[in-house]
Amino acid sequence: MLNFKTILSFIICLLILFVFSAHIAFGQSSNFVSNLPIVKIETDGKAIPDEPKITARMKMIHHPGGENRFDDAANEYDGIIGIELRGSSSQSYPQKPYAVETRNADGSNLNVSLLGLPAENDWVLLSNYNDKSLMRNLLGFKMFEELGHYAPRAKYVEVFLNGDYQGIYLFGEKIKRDNNRVNIATLKETDIDGEELTGGYIFKIDYWNDYDSWLSPYSPLDHPTFKVHFVYHDPGWDELVYQQKNYIKNYVSTFESTLYSSSYADPSSGYAAYLEVESFIDYFIVSEISRNNDGFKKSRYFHKDKNGKLVAGPVWDFDWAWKNINECFIFKATDGSGWSYKINDCNPWVKSPGWMVRLFSDDNFKNQTNCRYLEARAGVLSDEKLYATIDSLYNEVKVAQVRHFQKWNILGINVGAPEVDAQPTTYDGEVAKLRKWIRTRLNWLDAHMPGTCQPTDAEIISEEKNIQIYPNPASNIINVLSTRYLVNVQLFDISGKAIFSHSGGDKTTFQINVSGYKAGMYILRLTDTDGNIRNEKIIIR
Question: CA spacing 20 to 30 A to 191: which of 52, 165, 236, 476?
Answer without folding.
Answer: 52
